[in-house]
UniProtKB/TrEMBL annotation:
It is a multi-pass membrane protein. InterPro entries: ABC_BtuC-like (IPR037294), ABC_TroCD (IPR001626). Belongs to the ABC-3 integral membrane protein family. It holds the Pfam family ABC-3. Keywords: Membrane, Transmembrane, Transmembrane helix, Transport. This is Metal ABC transporter permease. The keyword Transport applies.
Amino acid sequence: MTAPPAITVLAGHSWTAALQHPFFQHALLAGTAVAAAAGLTGWFLVLRAQVFTGDALSHVAFTGALAALAMGVDPRIGLYAATIAVALLLGALGRRGRADDVAIGSVFSWFLGLGAFFLTLYTTSRSAGNGGAGVSVLFGSIFGLSASQTLTAALVGLGICAAVVAVARPLLFASVDEAVAAARGVPVRLLGFAFLAIAGACAAEATQAVGALLVLGLLAAPAGAAQRLTTRPYSGLALSAGLAVAEMWTGLGLSYAIPRMPPSFAVLATATAVYAATYLPAVRRVRPAYRGA
């Protein structure tokens, strides 16, 4: 009996076949960099209780991309400009560079209204020439990346990873004990702004892979699973990035094997299943006690 495609895609010969296709090579390269960046950034979002910020930025990404499309420019310009600018705005409205729920809720609702406006403007003026662009913003188009888009996504993803690693130590200190960190001379407010800018760039980049509606899942699920599996900060960071990359690969493989399954759904379904598995008693028992980094 022949095994189902969803099973055989994980075998070596199936991966070899998939890698013969340029679209899959592009998706794998870009997806790896994006997932690693989302895993590292998401770990700090969860640690700092700023997951709602990630949710808000995903909707800002949608609005920014639609604004760019409505004006006839590259949607990536709108993605990065909107998410980074709003992330910094949220930090300015919050305390010590941290966005609070009131500021997030106010800006979130305003940008949802702007999103509705730009969606109407786009669909009535430009959708005839590029009808699939709006759907790609919502749900991602990782299998449709060109070689140049793939290179850009990979470089931006690696840049985000490098930025997170560069600020990881002081940001960890400021996240765990903000008052003591400030007393020791750590620039807490500046770090808060820097991290929000990184989170904004990461949300914009991840939108191209899984879409604006599902960005939060890629930011939160691997990080949440990692924090449930280990209390060691640097091990948790590495585990979060590793889980995100593994889930990206698995999702792409499943989507290749089952063409009817969108890659964004496959990636997020895998991430959700992994997070749910951390609640199993057998998995929770292997969590090590905290002994530092």
